[in-house]
């Protein structure tokens, strides 16, 4: 069932302008809240969940090599009073741990008695990968390229389908949690399709500090949810294989801020985020030992040295130089590399943090086709 609410850019920007000009911001009327006239027990994954209840359910998604069932845990907190259903998913890449802790913390801290609406949490979506400390499934497929999936498809497609049909289609909003991939790290940021007013509202309320506009690749959980009419964002923060306190706290606070904005929990907040409409990857041109002392969040000038690549045999050294001015929003850690390796992800200046002067993509010279470098392992 498609519930997409397409909004023109002018309508979206009017809403933003209204939200930014009013103080305090009026809570926006949410049709999802209005829709809920009654608030009874709901049937989820074969179990009844009553108002005020917290449950841990299981979604049968696959089987192990030994034939035992692989069941994805699904956390549910059903508020005492009506409201939207917000879904939090993590571990779609099995080695990305920060989001797993964010989801756990949300469900530990938020009590049903204080919640309007319902929270659905999938802390470890890719159990196969998580058990092997791997980004991928056992067949090397990336689960986040197979949504919404198909029940008779590849193993990835079947797991995606089970998750999408069992959980995601119940969501009114979705946040999918990720980190950088393979010895890369990301400054905490939301990836969001800012052409949608509802997604824009989510992203601003989350207050991650940084928003990167992107539609998302087809097959990602975020893009598939949006295509189904479910406003969705991705929170990207930190490195894989680690639990990082700052990134986790910011993600938790972001969820709380978003719930407040939806009038589901607490008061919310209005922390303004920097917005980038265009980003560019900086790639190395030589193989060898890549070393850098640059830090996430640093502002860099075009032509500035960002790191070096040294041939470990000949000692020949080449410089990694910023081709544009901007801010480092993602980067590789020091490691061995081959030519073409994506070392720095730079947000390009020129975006308007208040969105009020932004042109639609087809009229915005900053987003001319072909100018965007492809992302390295996005989401
Ligand atoms: Zn990921």
Which molecules are bound in this entry? Answer: zinc ion
Largest sheet: 13 strands, mixed
Percent helix, as a range, is 10-25%
Which descriptor suits the 3D outline? globular
Instruction: Please count the beta strands (DSSP E, at least 2 residues each).
Output: 19
List the domain count as a whole number.
2
Radius of gyration: 21 Å
Q: What would CATH call the class of the largest domain?
A: Alpha Beta
Question: What does this 3D model show about the protein?
Answer:
The chain has 379 residues and is of the alpha+beta class. It has two domains: 9-275, Aminopeptidase, CATH 3.40.630; 279-350, Beta Barrel (OB fold (Dihydrolipoamide Acetyltransferase, E2P)). It contains eight helices and 19 strands. Strands 3, 4, 5, 6, 7, 8, 9, 10, 11, 12, 14, 17 and 19 form a 13-stranded mixed β-sheet that branches. A four-stranded antiparallel β-sheet has the order 16-15-13-18, with no helix packed on it. Strand 5, helix 3 and strand 6 (116-122) form a beta-alpha-beta unit. Bound molecules: zinc ion. The site of zinc ion has 4 residues, from loops.
């Amino acid at each position: 069932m498609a519930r997409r609410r397409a909004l023109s850019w002018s309508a979206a920007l009017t809403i933003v302008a209204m939200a930014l000009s009013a103080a305090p911001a009026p809570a926006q009327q949410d049709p999802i809240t209005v829709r809920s006239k009654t608030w009874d027990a709901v049937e989820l994954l074969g179990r009844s969940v009553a108002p005020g209840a917290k449950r841990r359910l299981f979604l049968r998604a696959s089987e192990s090599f030994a034939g035992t069932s692989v069941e994805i845990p699904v956390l549910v907190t059903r508020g005492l009073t009506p409201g939207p259903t917000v879904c939090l998913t993590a571990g779609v890449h099995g080695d990305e741990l920060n989001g797993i802790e964010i989801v756990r913390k949300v469900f530990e801290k938020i009590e049903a008695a204080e919640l309007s609406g319902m929270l659905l949490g999938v802390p470890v979506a890719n159990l196969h990968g998580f058990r092997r400390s791997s980004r991928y499934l056992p067949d090397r497929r990336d689960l986040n390229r197979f949504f919404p999936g198909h029940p008779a498809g590849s193993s990835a497609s079947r797991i995606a389908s089970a998750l999408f049909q069992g959980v995601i289609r119940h969501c009114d909003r979705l946040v999918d949690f990720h980190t950088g991939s393979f010895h890369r790290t990301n400054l905490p940021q939301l990836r969001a399709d800012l052409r949608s007013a509802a997604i824009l509202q989510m992203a601003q309320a989350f207050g991650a500090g940084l928003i990167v506009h992107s539609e998302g690749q087809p097959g990602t959980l975020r893009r598939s949810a949006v295509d189904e009419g479910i406003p969705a964002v991705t929170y990207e923060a930190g490195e894989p294989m680690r639990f990082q306190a700052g990134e986790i706290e910011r993600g938790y606070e972001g969820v709380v801020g978003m719930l407040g904005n939806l009038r589901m929990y607490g008061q919310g907040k209005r922390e303004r985020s920097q917005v980038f409409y265009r980003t560019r990857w900086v790639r190395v041109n030589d193989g060898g030992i890549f070393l850098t002392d640059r830090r996430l969040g640093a502002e860099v000038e075009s032509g500035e040295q960002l790191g070096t690549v040294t041939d470990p045999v000949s000692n020949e050294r080449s410089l990694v130089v910023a081709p544009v001015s901007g801010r480092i929003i993602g980067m590789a850690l020091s490691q061995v590399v081959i030519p073409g390796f994506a070392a720095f992800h730079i947000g390009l200046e020129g975006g308007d943090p208040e969105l009020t002067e932004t042109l639609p993509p087809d009229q915005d010279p900053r987003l001319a086709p072909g100018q965007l470098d492809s992302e390295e392992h996005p989401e």
